[in-house]
């Protein structure tokens, strides 16, 4: 934008120099593209020793999930994990197709590096190998000093994350490498996640996921049980499977041999 003007004449025979002003437009509109970091929860489908001929096992698992948690599976982000699996490219394509037909959204693969090339033709991402925590639990314990030092360092948790306001629908809170304490209600549609334990001093109506980094000993505590989903290190219980005997009561949630149990105080 350009402005020009002249000062008033002092006399008819003299003129002041011309003054030119340039206006700079400074836009305050928000950018049309903005990249932000964040996180969301995803389900992990672990296929152990599964071959192309074993699809009936996958169908049975998806059917059971659909019967108990139809709303949960719709649009659910899924990471496929391959462990000692002999799936061919066509077999993995079959897995992806069955997940999509069930309403889920498989978006990534975790597998040995030798199987990394399976991901790209399917339009999903390769996220690397299975976690060290999982591989350690599957292998014999080692007594080396280096391993004990590593395990000790990984087991060091930070102070608990304390939230003193209610968690509203649509909100997500993650306590990384620590326990989570919520002083207030957790609304339906909200998610609370922690690598350690979860304590809710109020009504738990949303989704609570504890022990996310492989801690089977993690627990979930609440003063009023009405949760949509309870998960400890990959194993979960949906609201449809919760006994009415524990609803609206103070409870703790524990994991015993891959089974989620709810105990009333």
TrEMBL record:
Superkingdom of the organism of origin: Bacteria
Chain segments annotated as transmembrane: none
One BP annotation, GO: regulation of cell septum assembly
Keywords on record: Cell cycle, Cell division, Septation
Domain Septum formation inhibitor MinC C-terminal: 162-262
Pfam families for this protein: MinC_C, MinC_N
Cytoplasm is among the record's keywords: no
Domain Septum formation inhibitor MinC N-terminal: 33-106
Region annotated Disordered, chain positions: 135-155
Polar residues bias: start-end ranges: 139-154
Role, per record: Cell division inhibitor that blocks the formation of polar Z ring septums. Rapidly oscillates between the poles of the cell to destabilize FtsZ filaments that have formed before they mature into polar Z rings. Prevents FtsZ polymerization.
Subunit structure: Interacts with MinD and FtsZ.
Family: Belongs to the MinC family.
Protein name: Probable septum site-determining protein MinC
Species lineage: Bacteria, Pseudomonadati, Pseudomonadota, Gammaproteobacteria, Oceanospirillales
Gene: minC
């Amino acid at each position: 934008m350009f402005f020009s003007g002249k000062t008033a004449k002092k006399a008819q025979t003299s003129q002041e120099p011309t003054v030119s002003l340039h206006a700079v437009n400074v836009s305050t509109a928000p950018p049309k593209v903005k990249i932000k970091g964040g996180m969301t929860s995803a389900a992990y489908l672990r296929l152990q020793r599964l071959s192309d001929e074993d699809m009936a096992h996958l169908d049975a698992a998806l059917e059971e999930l659909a019967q108990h948690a139809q709303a949960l599976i719709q649009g659910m982000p899924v990471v496929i994990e391959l462990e000692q699996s002999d799936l061919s490219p066509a077999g993995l394509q079959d897995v992806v197709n069955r997940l999509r037909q069930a309403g889920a959204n498989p978006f990534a693969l975790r597998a040995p590096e030798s199987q990394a090339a399976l991901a790209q033709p399917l339009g999903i991402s390769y996220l690397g190998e299975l976690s060290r925590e999982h591989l350690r639990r599957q292998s014999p314990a080692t007594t080396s000093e280096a391993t004990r030092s590593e395990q000790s360092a990984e087991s060091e948790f930070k102070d608990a994350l304390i939230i003193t306001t209610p968690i509203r629908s649509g909100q997500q809170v993650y306590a990384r490498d620590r326990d989570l304490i919520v002083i207030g209600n957790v609304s339906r549609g909200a998610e609370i996640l922690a690598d350690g334990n979860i304590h809710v001093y109020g009504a738990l109506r949303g989704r609570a996921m504890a022990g996310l980094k492989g801690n089977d000993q993690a627990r979930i505590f609440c003063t009023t049980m009405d949760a949509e989903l309870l998960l400890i290190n990959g194993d979960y219980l949906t609201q449809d499977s919760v006994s009415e005997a524990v609803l609206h009561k103070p409870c703790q949630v524990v994991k015993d041999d891959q089974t989620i149990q709810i105990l009333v105080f």
